[in-house]
Amino acid sequence: MTDHGSGGERPGPGGERPGHIPAVEDRWLLVAVAGALSFVAMLDMNIVNVALADISRGLQVSAATAQWAVLGYQLPVVALLLPVGRWLDGTGLRVALLTATGGFALGSAAAALSPWAAWLIAARVAQGAFGAVLFVLMPVLAIRSVRPGMRGRAMSVPATLGPLGAVTGPAVGGLLLDHLGWRAVFLVKIPFCVLALVVAWRAMPRDGGLRRPDRRSLADASLVGTGVAVLLLALTLASDAPAWLLLAIAAGPPLWWWLGGPGGRPVTGALRASGLFRAHGAVLSLAAGFAAMHYVVALHLQRDNGVSATTTGLTVLAFPLGMALAGPVGGRLADLSRSRHRSSGESSVGARAVAVAGAALTAAGLLLLVPLGDGWSPPDVAWRLALAGIGLGLNGGPTQALVMSAAPPGRAATVGSSVQLARGLGFTLGPALATAAWALAGPDGGVRAGLALAATAACLAVPLLALPARTPAPLSEKTTDAASAAPR
């Protein structure tokens, strides 16, 4: 995989690009903002799940209607990632961050104040749209706030805190629900957003304004949104009835139409030019394996082993603890290896080696979980989860740095959005496939079938990362200009 040096930071023909932060000095405060907002945005993917019954009672609606408090956020987040990525490549980073963070906070406040279900769903849809912008901005902000030699450490912050938000969402939501009620589940994120707004306002240089989406951008958003929303809906519904996976076929036509049009060609061109397709596959596989494992283990401990919810939560906590401890280590190792290989012109080798080692540790931890049975104690499960968590912590930052550093000039947000989409689809695909495997294997072998699927997905990520991508020809100036001039 080629390393383009500045990860898309170089100025184009017209001078300094919008959204550029000169990395003369390392701005770790902005990296911390990227990590905090990644945690908050991912926290919102799961924190509302535990409050659905209370929302249903409080707003006097059915459980199916209350479920849209979750889907109303998840659908626009995943559906808008790719169009948002292309839009942000020509937009000032500071104003985009301030707008998205402010909109996300206002959406959270509106959801907490909901007097009826339609208000809540509308607030969650708006919050999801701003959340999509945050998901794309966070890796771009982290990588542009430090020098190239510190990228592994910088990228490990959002790459670790984001998944930690997803894992801790149900636990945080349960605590808030027990003590403060369901509206607190939406309010808890606002202080983080306010703090991020203050820091960004003071620390980020002015770098341009927002670019209004034109008709081309709206058409792209409609096509991608329709396709991805149908796919996400099929995967979500398949958790209860695997036959819903057939609905995913309907996602094909709008996505195919978009890929062949002026909106999709620059995205696929950027990934092809940087040789990132295999890395995206690895991100999706690891996310699917992690999500499937988390779903199966928690369900087995409580339903089959009769373990209390508190003990189950503490046992599953071993995974995020291992991840949190290993995340900074992975970033540091990638940076040290990068400096060691820089003289040979292979500065991506170090990040790749650490990413592969992390993926292999995750796969090993999940493979050790496959024989999970009724006789296993919580500590037996916990140390295996910790091993898998350490692996994912080592993998996250280096993989993200590898991907973002290979982004062609002027396409950092596009590449960031595509890798976030791969991760989001993996998080949704994992539980759906684990449920299908469990149902096909029957009650006796369901747990092992689900865990075997999770381990297989993690194992697949190892060769995808280990095999270096064929070095592509760099984008010519003509190609880059044509992509930039394509209707949006």
Walkthrough of the structure:
- The protein has one domain (28-470): Up-down Bundle (Growth Hormone, Chain: A), CATH 1.20.1250.20.
- The protein contains 20 helices and no strands.
- It is an all-alpha fold and 488 residues long.
- The two termini are 29 Å apart.
- Residues 1-24, 343-347 and 471-488 have low confidence and may be disordered.
Short description:
With 488 residues, the protein is mainly alpha-helical. The chain has helices at residues 28-46, 52-59, 63-66, 68-79, 81-88, 93-112, 117-144, 151-180, 184-187, 190-203, 215-237, 252-259, 265-274, 277-304, 309-316, 318-341, 349-369, 378-405, 412-466, 477-485. 74% of the residues lie in helices and 0% in strands.
Secondary structure layout:
Elements: H1 28-46, H2 52-59, H3 63-66, H4 68-79, H5 81-88, H6 93-112, H7 117-144, H8 151-180, H9 184-187, H10 190-203, H11 215-237, H12 252-259, H13 265-274, H14 277-304, H15 309-316, H16 318-341, H17 349-369, H18 378-405, H19 412-466, H20 477-485
Largest sheet: none
Q: Give the count of helical stretches.
A: 20
Mean pLDDT: 77
CATH topology: Growth Hormone, Chain: A
The CATH class name reads Mainly Alpha
What percentage of the residues does DSSP assign to strands (E)?
under 5%
Number of domains in the coordinates?
1
